[in-house]
Amino acid sequence: MWVLRPVYPQPSGMSEGNSDIVVMKFGGTSVAGAEEIKRAARRIVAAREAGSQVVAVLSARGKTTDELVAQALEISPRPDSREMDMLLSTGERISCALCAMAIHDMGHKAISLTGSQAGIVTDSSHTNAKIIDVRADRISEKLGEDRIVLVAGFQGVSTDSHDVTTLGRGGSDTTAVALAAALGASVCEIYTDVAGVFSADPRIVPDARKLSLASFEEMLEMSASGAKVLQLRSVEYARNHGVRIHCRSSFEDGPGTLVVTELEAEQETVEQPFVTAVTHSESEARVTLTGIRDEPGVAGEIFTALADADVNVDVIIQNEPVGDDQLADLSFTIASGDLTKAIEAIEALGEVSKGIRTDERIGKVSIIGAGMRSHPGVAARVFEVLGGERINIEMISTSPIKISCVISAGEIPQAVRALHQAFDLGADAVKPEDPTGAGHRPTVSG
Amino acid sequence: MWVLRPVYPQPSGMSEGNSDIVVMKFGGTSVAGAEEIKRAARRIVAAREAGSQVVAVLSARGKTTDELVAQALEISPRPDSREMDMLLSTGERISCALCAMAIHDMGHKAISLTGSQAGIVTDSSHTNAKIIDVRADRISEKLGEDRIVLVAGFQGVSTDSHDVTTLGRGGSDTTAVALAAALGASVCEIYTDVAGVFSADPRIVPDARKLSLASFEEMLEMSASGAKVLQLRSVEYARNHGVRIHCRSSFEDGPGTLVVTELEAEQETVEQPFVTAVTHSESEARVTLTGIRDEPGVAGEIFTALADADVNVDVIIQNEPVGDDQLADLSFTIASGDLTKAIEAIEALGEVSKGIRTDERIGKVSIIGAGMRSHPGVAARVFEVLGGERINIEMISTSPIKISCVISAGEIPQAVRALHQAFDLGADAVKPEDPTGAGHRPTVSG
Hints:
Two copies of one chain form a homodimer. By secondary structure, the first copy, chain A, is α/β, with parallel strands linked by helices. Chain A is built from 13 helices and 18 strands.
């Protein structure tokens, strides 16, 4: 049995160094309208009044970023990326300024800072910049003046040209985690419109269970395989810098999901479950190159071209070459949004294969759990369950804590439900009177 | 006879110092939609291709600033002014980024800069900051790299706290003039939705004539007495720094109105007209304090209180004290938007008068012309014309080049038309065959 650590330290602990700093991040739906901004302001003020110093990172309101992108595309089919960053970075600044106004009206001092003013220093890869340094002096100074600091998410300033940069979609999560790391915050709270990380998508599996705890490794696999609650890069950053993440709902109280180190997760849990969650993705596409020569250089050439075109390749299968000509087939999956880019990149290579086939009607279902390491039978059980549902597994990829199966997109909901039930991940499964609840991570109250 | 100087220097003159820099400013209606932004971009590119180095200052698109203000008021009845500046400054950045994209697509290199990046340094009076320095190094550097530089208008950065500041409504005009002065530009072109400065409001006087030329002094009086085409502060700045302004339409070609020094205007004109333009304002209010003691200190106390409350007083009349108690009446006019503030400021003084009367149904009609200095009969003619229309003049104020009459707001259109005709200001009046056209500044083609 275990309980969640209090997220805000007790007042008695406040003088111990930086341990009383909390970073709170509010996503687009959490600041969409005036009411949502005031609600976020109230949460921020409550954390301040509970004794923490608060840095809040805000996303752009609701559909603001989409609208700005639409304005750019109305002007230019391929907008200049430096100017795109200048354009897109305005959305988060608007959220921060408005939230600061709301906090002032609640009797607290607040100040909004741009990414640049907050010291988020990045490389110069416009529209997809990487944070290379966090110079949080100005934030620390403002916290020292008893101010709540609001930071525009998703943006920074490039070292070389002092231009505004953006971190790519979902980059505000990374801003928050990076600030939490730089400030030595006790926790980085990510507020969204869902209550935490679930054992499966609740829209597909109604009895999906909110996870109390996940390890960084599990969360990485979940983010990479379809769970949308946390941006992959922010989880990587948190793991590398040991930042505790707390995913919570901005619309309800109560704890959400803590993402912590594997060691910490193990210490908090009496018994490790085989499987933590089932994730899925329907926006996959498969590319099959037929009749490529089975030479070492050919596959390397193809995947280098894809990497250069910024296409992430997920699952790869190469058939054994057959016949006298030693020609093989090569299949791989990518995000369906990258399909055009991928085909262009391969065609630019000239004659590498006899033909290209694509399939956009595929999806991927994955089961994830740190406990799989010590339970080698899990893969067999997955194949058995999907087989029992008469679902054809087209491709497979595994890691020590993940098994992903590429299947027909139309069969995704059925596969998710079957796996979720087979591994007893549901909320009902952990009720004390449920005999099948054994072997599962207990809920918060457990 | 005179002709307008070419706005863009001939290519042969290009190498002479900075004389080939042009600053172009586009107002909100000139960048409202994608088409307008592309049109502005084409004008900018045309100026560049004609041989000039171009710095363009852009306002926020259409109603953007109003919408941002509305968002702030939805959150807070009295938004914090520092945060208001953070909020409002985003509008011009959006315009600049979009215009830079459009220019790129036309095959030219452009870069958008925030007010801060452009070196517009201000004091810390948030929402109404004054420019105290222009450090245009980065602009010069980018011009040297053969780039078109787009600068977000209306904003700067404060010296002390490095916070974003804004210059108040219409501040983009001042940004443009300040940059033109700092860069030694040959001209500051102000593009709006009207073709220039007119001899009267064309909505009231259909045959109002577009002025080819106005002196800074005339333009100051016009801006101060109701003409909306140029912000008063920008004209003051231009006069103090000798920046030639060219007011033009962004929707049609052809010259607009040049605003230059009085000396230059005189040199360009064969014969000085008595009167250049009739302006009017309907958003005036009159405050009358009845029964104030006729002591020197009292009026000073009242007008100091109004100045402290940021209320601009226009016309003032004090009656002679009558009766044994030496009590007088004091009347003054202010912008009707300032009425509440003004009354609060006076009431805060305690018992300075027996009563306060206000009248919001008044307006002001003014005639302006540098030639009035040498034609003392103009005032008499104004009173005669208004008297002939049976319009009662309630207050009068004059300067060497202006006569303003406070009249009933309802009679403004009639007064404007009568004065415009009496002083032969109409476009018809200057046709060669018109015998009454003598004594008027010739038109461009004249």
